[in-house]
Structures are given as C-alpha cells and as structure tokens.
Specification:
With 143 residues, the protein is an alpha+beta fold. Helices cover 27% and strands 22% of the residues. The chain contains 4 helices and 5 strands, in the order E-H-H-E-E-E-H-E-H. A 5-stranded mixed sheet has the order 1-2-3-4-5. A hairpin with a 4-residue loop joins strand 3 and strand 4. Helix 1 crosses helix 2. It is globular and about 45 Å long.
Length: 143
C-alpha cells in the first residue's frame, strides 16, 4: 500500500468482527440475513485481511479468503466502509490480498461479484474460461 494514511494487515487479531458483521449486513447484497454467529464462523475458518486508518487504527475495509493454501482460493466478503469508498481503499485491499496469496503458487483464485468487475480485472481476474465445467450447490444440507 502506498498511501501512508492507510495500513494493510493480514493479522487476524486486528479484525473487528462486530464491524465486519455490521458492514456486511448493512452494505453487502450477498450477505443479507447473515447472522453474526455465521460471520464469526466464516472469519474463524478463513484468512482475513483489513485496511486500517494509520492514525486511529479504525478498520476501513475487510476481505477474507477461503483456501487450502496450495491449489485453490476463493476471495470473498470484500467490503469497504461506504463513507470511504473512492479513496483507493478497495484497490489497496485487493492488492494486499493478492500479494499475500502470490507466494502460495495457487493454480486458481475465484471470486463472485455483481458490481466490481473493473476492480478485479486490474488484478488479472477474468470471466470463467470454461463455465460449463463449473457447478454449484446452493443452500445447506438438511439435518
């Protein structure tokens, strides 16, 4: 990150779970209805990243990655405080995450977005090359 006003961190102890849950619940179309309990479990099972105000330490952005650390990763829950959008924080966050993942030599990193294709294209993300090979199963298994 080049802006000295912000700090990227991969330290999971710096994540503010209440802030993350609130931001996602209030400002992320994909997380509507997600409970704090579910979000806390997602945080616990993921690699977590944040951007912080260098002066106050306030969390300004969040992203998490689900990965095996060797072959595959899924970048998800990327959120920037709406009051700080347009300051380059999202770009800095994704740049930091990609720099953290690069040494792993992953074969594939995926994400899903409904509105930020331009941001992710800056980091080499493209539409699926062979979408006909991909499948999904939505919902939870019945107990």
């Amino acid at each position: 990150m080049t802006d000295p006003a912000f700090e990227f961190s991969a330290d999971p102890l710096r994540i503010d779970p209440a802030w993350v849950s609130r931001m996602l619940a209030e400002h992320a179309y994909w997380a509507v209805g997600r409970t704090r309990e579910t979000q806390d479990a997602a945080i616990a099972g993921s690699r977590n990243y944040g951007i912080y105000d260098a002066t106050t330490g306030e969390q300004l952005a969040y992203a998490r990655v689900v990965t095996d650390g060797a072959t595959f990763a899924w970048l998800c829950d990327v959120i920037v405080n709406p009051q700080r959008r347009g300051d380059g924080i999202g770009v800095a966050l994704v740049a930091g995450v990609m720099a953290e993942l690069e040494p792993l030599g992953l074969k594939r990193t995926l994400l899903a977005t409904g509105d930020a294709h331009g941001l992710y294209a800056k980091f080499g993300f493209t539409p699926l090359q062979e979408p006909e090979k991909w499948m999904e199963r939505s919902g939870r298994l019945a107990d």
